[in-house]
Amino acid sequence: MPIILEGSFKSVGTIAIVVSRFNEFITYKLLDGALDCLSRHGVDVEKSVTIVKVPGAFEIPVVAKKLADSGKYEGIVCLGAVIKGATAHFDYVCSEATKGISAAMLDSGVPISFGVLTTDTIEQAIERSGTKLGNKGFEVTQNLIEMVNLLAKL
Questions:
Q1: What is the pTM of this model?
Q2: Which residues contact 88 (CB under 8 A, 6 or more apart)?
């Protein structure tokens, strides 16, 4: 029988959440979902969670990397919302946020979840922040809990 390792959803320790203020009517709903997830999984949100607010999604990676390198956090949740407009700005911001968050995770070895919505419309963002399609903030935080517990086994 092969050895199978997988994460669990048991409570984790200290978590940082980096959330973009840009499109806050979406991102703060994602934040609510993330905090709800942590609370439901036994995390003492008041004592174990640090929330860092940044101007926009482009600024998330440098803060995530700094938090990961600090050694204070078991995992980091990154939340933002980039909604497509009429210019190429959307493509640049989405690309750099994605690459930067991924690099921060790989360089530090700290699990970092990607909760930056990249949608074509405001309606799509609203659907993913707590309506028809659930709350992606909750979902990516649940993934983070699982990864923190999995990496602890390796």
A1: 0.95
A2: none
**Tokens at 133, concatenated:** 């399609």
CATH 3.40.50.960 given to domain 15-153? yes
41 flagged as catalytic: no
Domain assignments of the chain as residue spans, ordered by start: 15-153
| Per-position DSSP letters for the chain, written without gaps between them | ------------S-EEEEEESTTHHHHHHHHHHHHHHHHHTT--HHHHEEEEEESSGGGHHHHHHHHHHHT--SEEEEEEEEE--SSTHHHHHHHHHHHHHHHHHHHH---EEEEEEEESSHHHHHHHEEETTEEHHHHHHHHHHHHHHHHHH-
Q: Which of 10, 40, 89, 99 is catalytic?
A: 89
Backbone φ and ψ for 65, nearest 5 degrees, come out as -65, -45
Q: What is the pLDDT of residues 133-149, one digit of tens each?
A: 799 999 999 999 999 99
